[in-house]
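Q: What changes when zinc ion is included in the input?
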Amino acid sequence: MLHLLVEEPLPLPPPQQHPSPPRPNIIPKYPQNALNQQSFESSYRIVCNHLLDFTRSKSLLRGQSLHAYILKSGLHLVPLICHHLITFYSKLELPYCAEHVFHETEFKSSTTWSAIISSFTQNELPLRALEYFKSMLRNNGMFPDDHIFPLATKACAMINGYSLGQSVHCLASKIGYDVNVFVGSSVLDMYAKCGNLRDARKVFDEMPDRNVVSWSGMIYGYAQMGDDEEALRLFKGALDEGMDVNDFTFSSVIRVCGNSTLFELGQQMHSLCLKMNYDKASFVGSALISMYSKSGMIDGAYRVFEEVSDKNLGMWNSMLIACAQHAHTKMVFDLFEKMVSRGTKPNFITFLCLLYACSHTGLVEKGKHYFEMMEDYRIERGSQHYASMVDLLGRAGKLDEAMKLINGMPLNPTESVWGALLTGCRIHGNTNLASAVADRVFELGPVSPGLHVLLSNAYAASGRFQEAARARKMLKDRGQKKETGLSWVEEGNKIHTFASGDRRHELSEEIHRKIEELGEEMERAGYVADTAHVLKEVGAEEKSEMIRYHSERLAIAFALITFPPKRPIRIMKNLRVCGDCHVAIKFISKCTGRIIIVRDNNRFHRFENGECSCGDYW
Ligand code: ZN
Ligand code: ZN
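A: The predicted holo structure follows.
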C-alpha cells in the first residue's frame, strides 16, 4: 500500500534557499580551540542553548555561523545537535536547508527522522514529508513512534489523501500504536479533515483515552460537514468531561455559530473565550471575526480585529472577507496595504477578497490591477479568480473582454466562470452571446440546477424557445429542483424559518396583518410593486408569484411584531434577494425607522432610512 506515497514528481530545492556565507561582523565569538579549553560536555550544552535561542529569535545568520562552528568542532556527530539544527532551519522556513543537515547527519535516530518529517509538514510540503516517512520505513527498518505517526497523518490530511491515511492507520494498528492517545487523535483528525466522519467517529468512540485533539478534531469534523447540532453537543460533552478545550476547539465552535447564524450563542462563546483568555489567539480571532460578520455585525468584527495584536494571515483574510461582504470596499484596499506593509504575504484567498470587492463595486481597473499583481506574488490564479474577474468585466458590460479572458484561461472554465459570463450577458441584454455560450456549456455535459436556469433563460431571451424548453426538461428529467427560498431570523434561542407564502408559523395571522398594514404605509411613501419581477423568472431568485409574501418579508414582519423597538433586525436568506424585495425593504426601513440587515447567499445588505449599503449593486 505504501507505494502510493509519492503522488507526483517532487520539486527540486529552489537554489536561493541554500545557506549563504555568514557576514563576518556578526559571527558569535566562539574561540577556535573551544574544545581544547572546555570539556566536550559543556561545549555541547552551550551550543545546544545557543541553537535553541537562535531558533526562538529566528536569527538566521547567527544560526548559520553556529552551524559552521558545529561542523568544525565535530559536534555534528551528536544526533541531538543535528535534530536542533534541522528544527532551526525548519522554523526559519528553510526546509531544504534542513534537508541538507539531515543528509549530513551520520547517526540518524528516530528523533532525526521525526525532525525532518516535521520540517516538511510544518512548511507545507506534505508530499515530501510522506516521501521521507516511506524512506524511513523502507531503508532503515525503523518503526515510527507516537511523534512520527501524527506527522504522517497530518501530511495525509493536507493532501486530502484518505486512502493513504488509511494505510498509515493500518500500520499504526499493526504495531499497536492505535491505542496511543496522540496517534489515535491524529488519525481521527485526518479522517475528519478528509471528510470521512464515520471513520473518524469510529476511532473516537473506540479510543481508550481522549485528549483535547480528539475532541477538537471531532467537533471540527461535524462543523465542516454542517452537522452543527452534533458539533455543539460534543462541545458541551467536552466541557462536561472537564476537558481543557483549546483555541482550536473554540474556533471550530465559533465557526459553527457563524455558519448557522446562532449569534447569541456565538456571543456566549466570545465571553467564554474572554474568561479563558483565548480571545487573543489569532485562530479564535478569525473565527470571531467571521461569526460577527456573518451575523451582520461588522462593528463587532472590527473590534475583535483591533484587539488581537498578533495578526496572522487567517485573521487578515477574515477581516478582508468581512469588509468585502459588507461593501466596506475602501477598507478592503486600505487593509490590504496595511497587511502588506506589515510584512504579511497575501495568499490566493486574499486576492479572491480583493477581486470580490472590486466586482461588487464595479471597479474594473482596480480589479485588473490586483489580478495582475497575483503574478508578482507568484500566486497561481484559480478558477475562482477567473470567475470573479469575468463577473467584474461582465457586470461592467465588457463582455468581449470577459470572453477573451475565458478563452485564454490555462484551466478549463468552471460553472461559476460561465455563470458569471451569463449574468453579465443578462444584465446587458446581449442575447446572442448568451445563447452561443449556452451552446458551448451544454456540450460540456451535466450542469448544476442554478446554471440550468441561467442557460434556459439565455435561450428564451434570444428567442430560441425550443432549446429553452429542452433545457428545462433536462433539469426536470434529472429530478433536480431549484432550491426553495428560505429566510430565517433568530429570536431568543430559537430560529424562525419562513418559506414564500408560508402560513405555518404560529403567529401567521399577525404576520400577514402586519404585511398588509406595512403595504399601505409603504404605498403612501411612494412604493410601487415592481410587477416585472413577477413576469420574468430570473436566476436563483425566489419564485415570483406572491411577491408580497416572499420569505424575507414574512421574516421581517415577524421581527417587527416580536422584537423590542429599535432592535436591529437580522435576516438570513439562502437565495439572492429579488429586486422588488430590495426596494420594499428600503421602504420598510424608512417607514419603521429600523435597521434591517439581510444576508443573502452572496452578500450583506444593510438597510437604514430608505438606503441600502450595497448601493443597489448586487
Ligand atoms: Zn423577493
Ligand atoms: Zn442591498
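Observations recorded in class: The longest helix spans residues 40-57.
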